[in-house]
Each structure stands twice: as C-alpha cells, then as structure tokens.
Write a structure and sequence with these properties.
Blueprint: H1 25-43, E1 47-52, E2 59-64, E3 78-81, H2 84-95, E4 98-104, E5 110-117, E6 120-126, H3 136-139, E7 145-149, H4 153-162, E8 166-173, E9 178-184, E10 190-196, H5 201-207, E11 244-250, H6 254-265, E12 284-288, E13 296-300, H7 304-313, E14 317-318, E15 322-324, E16 327-333, E17 339-345
Parallel strand pairs: 3-6, 7-10, 11-12, 13-17
Antiparallel strand pairs: 1-2, 4-5, 5-6, 8-9, 9-10, 11-13, 14-16, 15-16, 16-17
Helix pairs in contact: 2-4
C-alpha cells in the first residue's frame, strides 16, 4: 500500500529562518570608514595647493575635497536669488560648493536647490515675485550675511572676486582671532571668508574696548571669567607633534563610571555632568556618553589642515576640521579603519 506524499525538500528542516542581524558596532564603523575612503578616492577631484600662511612663514597646505552630501544642519540658510542656476555656478567657483540636487519647473526657474559648502548645507531658489519670494537686489539689500571658514581666506577671497563677487571689505586680521574679508555676490548676498589665526578672543576684545561676557550655566556668571580660570594649571603642558592631548572612555552610565574610576583611580569630577576628569595632570581626559562606544584619542599636530591632507593622502579618512573652544579637531580613521582624532590645542591649554 502506498500513500501519496506532497513534494517536500528534505533540507527544509535544517534551514534557519532568514532574518537580518546587526553586525558588531566596531566592525560596522570600520567597514563604513573603509568604504568611505575608497569612494573618496574614486569620486573626489583633489587638488593640493601650497600657499604662504599670512601669520607666519610656515607653508599651509589646502585641499579641496568632496564634502559630505548627506550633512544636515540644525539651522539651514535658504537663499533667494534672481538666477539660481548662475548662482550655483558662482558658489561652486568661489567657495568650492558641491550641488546636491535641484528642482526645475516648466518655466525653467529653480523652485528648490541644495548645495554643500564644507560641512554645511545651503538651500536656494529662484525669485517668485508672484508669491512674494524675492532676493536682496529687489529689496535693496539684506541684513543677513554668511561666514565661510576656510584654511586660507586670501585664496578663497581672490577666487570669489574673480568669479564676480564685489569687494565689501578687504582681507585683514581681526581682533577676534580671524583673518577675514567680505564680498557681495552678484545676487546681493554678503559672504565673509574667514580663517582662524589665534584664540585670544577675550583678551583682544578688551584691548579693542569691548566687554566680553560668556554665558556659563556651571559657574557664577557675575565672576571675572578669564581664560586661565577655566583651566586647572596642572592640566597645562607643552605639547609636541604626536603627543596625546586628550582621551575619553565610553560609558552607558556616567554616574556609575565616575564612582568606579573615582574609587579605583581617584579621579575627581568637579562638574559631573560633563564627565571631564579634573584631578589628573595633562594629558587630561574624561568619560563620554554619546558618540562611538570606544576609547577616543586626540593627538597633537602643528597644522590641522596639512595633517588632514596627509591622512587622506596615505589612505586614511578624515572629516573636515572643526574649531572648538578647546582647539581644532578632526575625526579620522587610519588606512586600516582604526579611529583617532587630530588636534591643535587652544592656547589656553598649552605651556610654551
């Protein structure tokens, strides 16, 4: 006697359910960095120019690279221009902008476009007077201006003028620690190109006749807040190229980690909410809740932009440098995917 059985794959019982899994976080980060580096080598048109730094005789290397087109700002400027297509060409030529996309209507006008300049996204559109959307030239000017921070403002300023920008203020050193010049683009928007040259903002402001007041929720704002009072003297040192400037350890529970390292290593946290260790001599460090769940290290370099260019030239990945109160910072990975940071410490953290 035979029984009809339905056709069935004998290996069905051995098959596991197909379901996605999340890879190890550190592996995913290394893979992402390696892919980013390879893509940069493929799609980036990189040109390196050696120029003379206006603040000294040391050559400064500037590199134009493809920015992160997926960057999203907390606050995004939206420009209205009478001729958005030509304006995009100007911003590309003057500031190294990269176009993300544009929306063009039946009448040829651009209803919306997005470009990326460095690590910032800018939106723009043509004028639509029928909807009360007009640019500065039609309004007789604009009270709003934009500042673009670049490695060499003299070079970018000249480039903007050559592209059709009108000189409003020639390039000059400013007391607030930047070398700057201002141009007005052909559509009426004013752009300041700026390069940091020192971090003595507070002292120089006083010399120039200004009173410097900084909001600080962790200290008495009525007190005299000079730069030296924010840094414990034992956390100052002389740094040479390659020295460790700062470190952070990841934690999921800041208070618990502070208690642990306080008991084991004697670490003291005068401001527990930020995780900085006050009791150790330089190089100092702390704990971090946000960001990568791995140790982060900051190494000292002489020129942040030249160091970033060197990382990229040797197969690593480097984000665009960012200027913080603590100094310049660039997040990097080496050519094997190991993360690290480059740093030019602010003067208030450095002994001569």
């Amino acid at each position: 006697m035979t029984t009809d059985m339905p056709d069935r794959d004998a290996f069905d019982a051995l098959r596991a359910e197909v379901a996605p899994i999340h890879p190890d976080r550190s592996f995913a980060q290394r893979l992402r960095d390696r892919l980013t580096t390879e893509l940069e080598h493929t799609v980036t048109n990189t040109t390196t120019n050696t120029t003379t730094n206006t603040t000294g005789s040391t050559p400064t290397t500037t590199t134009d690279t493809q920015p992160d087109l997926d960057v999203v700002n907390a606050v995004t400027p939206y420009l209205v221009v009478a001729g958005a297509a030509d304006a995009i060409d100007f911003y590309v030529a003057a500031f190294g902008a990269v176009e993300h996309h544009r929306l063009v209507g039946d009448d040829g006008r651009i209803g919306h476009a997005e470009i990326v300049i460095g690590n910032s996204r800018v939106m723009l559109a043509d004028e639509f007077p029928e909807h009360d959307i007009v640019g500065p030239n039609r309004l007789g000017g604009s009270p709003v201006s934009f500042t673009v921070t670049v490695p060499d403002c003299d070079v970018v300023f000249d480039r903007a003028v050559s592209a059709g920008g009108e000189v409003i203020r020639p390039v000059a050193d400013q007391f607030h620690g930047h070398r700057q010049g201002m141009v007005r683009d052909p559509w009426g928007h004013r752009w300041t190109v700026s390069t940091p040259i020192h971090d003595r903002y507070e002292a120089e402001a006083a010399t120039a006749g200004w009173t410097y007041t900084r909001a600080d929720t962790t200290t008495d704002t009525t007190a005299d807040t000079t730069a030296d009072e924010h840094v414990d003297p034992h956390q100052l040192k002389h740094f040479d190229r390659g020295d460790l400037f700062y470190f952070t350890l990841p934690t999921a529970d800041l208070a618990r980690s502070q208690a642990f390292f306080g008991a084991v290593l004697g670490w003291q946290f005068l401001h527990p909410e930020n995780g900085h260790v006050e009791s150790i001599a330089a190089p100092s460090g702390g704990l971090h809740l946000d960001g990568p769940q791995q140790v982060q290290l900051w190494f000292v370099v002489d020129d942040i932009h030249a160091a970033v260019a060197a990382v990229r030239a040797h197969g690593g990945h480097a984000d665009e440098p960012v200027l913080h109160d603590s100094g310049w910072d660039a997040s990097c990975t080496d050519d094997q995917g190991t993360p690290f940071h480059l740093s030019v410490p602010a003067e208030k953290y450095v002994l001569p």
